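To whoever is on call:

I kicked off a structure prediction for a single chain this morning and the downstream step that reads the tokens threw a length-mismatch warning. I double-checked the sequence; it's 170 residues and nothing unusual in it as far as I can see. Pasting both halves so you can look.
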Amino acid sequence: MRIIRLTPDYKFGSFNCEEPDLNDFLLTDAKEYASRLLAVTYLIESNGDVAAFFSISNDRISLSESDKATWRRIKSAFPHRKHRSDYPAVKIGRLGVDYRYKEQGLGSSILNFVKKAFITNNRTGCCFVTVDALPSAVNFYKLNGFHLLRKSDREKAETIPMYFNLTRLV
């Protein structure tokens, strides 16, 4: 397997992660997001297939996006003199694994890759990884060390904001 950055001339074969929105993003929107500087998409290839993909972009965590208990926990990771009204983050905008490659640890490997990339080669300064998880993926992200950004409204939300504190790995 290898990780490559999606290019404008990349020719897709088949891809189906069984989530229509994720499939549509990869096959229809990912190149335009890149050309408009909204997100960068990476592909994990295996034997000529796209086994998985993820897109990343800049983000932030702020009090207005979290509950007070979570915000206190976030701020406690920093000395008082370093407290801010928001903290920089990298957002995993989309992450999908083709159904043929599911249950092989590929999703967790992608999360570990992103975490490692931003603690070893952090070019912009970010201390969190964020994701707006589909309700069906919340447990997957929890198993990979992510926490809920807000405790309320979980039942009626289309996506659930979550975060991972990169300072725990430094």
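Update from on-call: the warning came from a stale cache, not from the record. Cleared it. Sanity check on the structure: The first helix runs from residue 20 to 35.
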